[in-house]
Amino acid sequence: MIGASDLRLHVRIDSLILRNLAIVVAQEFPVAKRVSKQSSSIIPVGFSQFAAEEDPKVNRAKQVELAAAAGKQGAKIFCTQELFTSQYFCQAEDHRFFNYAESIPGPSTDALSKVAKKHNMVIIASLFEKRASGLYHNTAAVLDADGSLMGMYRKMHIPDDPLFYEKFYFTPGDLGLRAWKTRHATIGVLICWDQWFPEGARLTAMQGAEILFYPTAIGWHPSEKNEYGVAQHDSWELSMRAHAVANGCYVCAPNRVGHERVMGLDGKPVSKDGLEFWGQSFVSQPNGQVVHRASVKEQEVCIVDCDLAKVEFARTHWPFLRDRRIDAYGDITKRFLTA
């Protein structure tokens, strides 16, 4: 028969054994991390950069592979480079390249939605959209973490520069500037040439976007690189870092890499120099500091922890949204102001 004192002794011994067992389990399985408010605000954001080939099927498979790799590494949001299924065909005005366009939903969103669902990961996919015969857009599809298509953003600002003849292919976007409250964060999506326009970043951030994504295809004209290359790259990066500061948010800009010479019908490059894409995909935090910058030439999958608590901190300590003089900005909708 066990007395009361013996029972208390057994209870103390059993408690000690259970406490020691808990310590051993914690040491053996360190993946069981302590959950805190701070850690719950951190969102691993993934993006990739790679050199595109001529075959769209090869490029699609490569992008799906890189997105899956990011998911396996824990990314909760992933963004592709601009027009990932092809080389940057806008180096020439050639009707052949309309064959690269696809519907949304379509083969690329179908493939990436499976990756999104498998890894509980939001995916931003930049595509050449065929909306109808004769109507095409440069479009980013937003897939939520369950694989569903949340919506699309169609590129609003369309360039027309040497070897960047986008007006030949793309109808300006008509879906407006918007943000999406995804499973993991509220995000805004713009595309490449939109990078130079502060209005787009502002209007997206005003809808609550905590992270702005800019899928991109930008590079040097090799003949100009020595003279203008550093300044061009600095301007590109600086403009988006300024968006991060002015709007108190993260900015993620995945670019492509590689030296592309698009071939014409005669089997020769449409431009002897082609375009040398400068890579250097990056993420800026809300204070404008670059927290990660990829290489100039290498294919990469990058995962960057974005702490959304820093968005709240930035917007309360530098309250630019509070101090906007909306009563004085009416003329912003005009093309130009004369004295």
- Please write the CATH class name: Alpha Beta
**Count of the domains:** 1
Strand content: 15-25%
Helix content: 25-40%
Distance between the termini: 103 Å
User: What is the CATH T-level topology?
Assistant: Nitrilase/N-carbamoyl-D-aminoacid amidohydrolase
Question: Widest sheet: strand order?
Answer: 5-4-3-2-1-17
Unreliable spans: 4-38
Categorize the overall geometry.
globular
Give the helix/strand class. alpha+beta
The H-and-E topology, N to C, reads as HHEHEHEEEEEEEHEEHEEEEEEH
The CATH architecture classification is 4-Layer Sandwich
Count of DSSP E strands?
Answer: 17
Q: Could you walk me through the main structural features you see in this protein, from its secondary elements to its overall organization?
A:
By secondary structure, the chain is an alpha+beta fold. 29% of the residues lie in helices and 24% in strands. The chain has helices spanning 4-28, 37-40, 56-72, 107-119, 198-205, 225-247, 308-317, and strands spanning 42-49, 77-79, 122-132, 135-143, 149-154, 160-161, 164-165, 179-181, 186-189, 211-213, 219-220, 250-253, 257-260, 275-278, 282-284, 290-293, 300-307. It has a six-stranded mixed beta sheet with strand order 5-4-3-2-1-17. The longest helix is centred in the first third of the chain and has 25 residues, at 4-28. It is globular and about 60 Å long.
